[in-house]
TrEMBL record:
Listed SUPFAM superfamilies: Homeodomain-like, Tetracyclin repressor-like, C-terminal domain
Domain annotation HTH tetR-type: ranges: 26-85
Protein name as it appears in the record: TetR family transcriptional regulator
A Gene Ontology molecular function term of the record: DNA-binding transcription factor activity
Renumbered residue ranges of the record's region Disordered: 1-22
Keywords linked to the UniProt accession: DNA-binding, Transcription, Transcription regulation
Record PROSITE patterns: HTH_TETR_2
PANTHER family: HTH-TYPE TRANSCRIPTIONAL REGULATOR BETI, HTH-TYPE TRANSCRIPTIONAL REGULATOR RUTR
Pfam families: TetR_C_43 (PF21597), TetR_N (PF00440)
Composition skew (Low complexity), residue ranges: 1-14
Native source organism of the sequence: Streptomyces cacaoi
Origin: domain of life: Bacteria
InterPro entries reported for this sequence: Homeodomain-like_sf, HTH-type_TetR-like_transc_reg, HTH_TetR, Tet_transcr_reg_TetR-rel_C_sf, TetR_SbtR-like_C
């Protein structure tokens, strides 16, 4: 993404230049982001903007007022999803008394945001190493690490996994199979997530091959 696009995206995200967003404008923006997320999951980054506006229940002019072009909308969707995952992690840490249940709630909620389906489809239009994007990703990683640490210290989560294992599972369990529409797999996701979560419980019923995945191993080489 160009520097100009990143600047426009940041402006759209923060509402810079608007004294105070009206409640209806804020609702419209969120409806557009919800609709765009679903459209990008189903059809990729080239999904029809007209259809996104129609699904959101707004006019094209409203969509373009919030998101001047496709790249800004893609950027907005990725931040929308990442921000929601951060909120889920913070809520789980704050409200769940049982460490395992906190991790489980976070994993289920993050899976519903379709991050595994979105990232491969939008990667050409979204630079994960831009400072703002990098900060958001680091926050998700920190929250995942803290939830995992608490579960392991309470002997509720098996000790032989790392935060990278959780990140890989979230990505893989929400990524569509080749030739299969995302919607066709949605009804199975909760079942597969529960199978995965059952496998995280301590004591571990088996020994995992290899070693726990680290975040460093998941990051691309410089």
């Amino acid at each position: 993404m160009s520097q100009a696009t990143a600047s426009r995206a940041a402006t759209a995200r923060r509402g810079v230049g608007v004294p105070k967003a009206r409640a209806d404008a804020a609702r419209n923006r969120e409806r557009i982001l919800h609709a765009a997320r679903e459209a990008f999951v189903a059809h990729g980054a080239e999904a029809s903007l007209d259809e996104i506006a129609r699904s959101a229940g707004v006019g094209n002019a409203t969509l373009y007022r919030h998101f001047p072009d496709r790249d800004v909308l893609v950027h907005g969707v990725m931040h929308f999803v990442t921000d929601r995952i951060v909120e889920l992690g913070e809520q789980a840490l704050r409200e769940s008394a049982e460490p395992f249940e906190a991790l489980a709630c976070f994993v289920r909620g993050a899976a519903e945001e379709r991050i595994g389906a979105l990232c491969p489809m939008l990667s050409d239009r979204f630079d994960p190493d831009e400072p703002e994007n990098l900060a958001s990703r680091r926050r998700v990683e920190q929250l995942t690490q803290e939830l995992l640490r608490r579960g392991q210290e309470a002997a509720q989560v098996r000790a032989d996994i790392g935060v990278g294992d959780v990140m890989v599972a979230l990505s893989q369990l929400t990524r569509p199979l080749p030739g299969v529409r995302c919607g066709q797999l949605d009804r199975f996701t909760a079942r597969h997530l529960q199978l995965y979560l059952d496998g995280l419980r301590a004591p571990a019923p088996s020994r995992l091959p290899g070693h726990a995945a680290t975040l460093e191993e998941l990051r691309p080489d410089d």
